[in-house]
Here is the input.
Amino acid sequence: MRGLSVAEHVLQSFGVTNPEEIDIEAIAWALGAKVRYDALESCEARIIGFKDRAIITVKDDGDPRRRRFSIAHELGHWQHHRGRSSICRASEIGTPGQAGASIERQADNYAADLLMPAYLFRPLSAQFPKPTFEAIDALATTFSTSRLATALRFIDLSPWPCVIVCHGPNGRRWFRRNRAVPDHWFPKNDLDPESAAMDILFGGIERAVPTIIGADAWFDRWNADRFELREECVKAFGNDVLALLTLTDARMLE
Ligand SMILES: [Zn+2]
Here is the structure.
């Protein structure tokens, strides 16, 4: 069991014992940062700090759950990168697979820890018998977080070996797998015609029924055609599709 993260320490010092108590503006205020909403043009959120006070400005339109994550991301900069101002574009907040910009990843990790602390997220996600988008969406409602942010957190903390892969019309955009998945299972660049992800990407449907599919639809390792896995696909942001893959065959973990 790992120790508490910086963000989880903050929550525990405020006595947070359930997700509804994670009032992001109140937490920001207690940490010295005032939150404002404004019509930002060139970025999603920013923080300007001076000594022990800061002002976080967040774009005033869009999804409120996404705004919460943006505020928590800026607080991550405040906690980890104090002394510098940060101006963050939408593509820098909560988007996996961005090369470089390690301070953005650090701010994202802080935001995930603050909004979905492991000490609350783990027991609540354990109520669901297996990884599904139904479970992820229910947790997203409980924690007031976006489907994408919740899915990434779910993957990171799940005891199940699972991978989440994001595809756009031009191929794979990014993927994330948890520690239970061996490194040699590396997702393919292109979608397999057998995957339901095709029907979402090009057929206009919102989500597909979870199915069992050959592992070679997702991985091109030499022995992939010997195994099957569980696939569930949903439409995501823009024209993307998210696939949740669960490695149900224990031989894939050897
Ligand atoms: Zn940032």
In short: The chain has two domains: 6-115, 160-253.
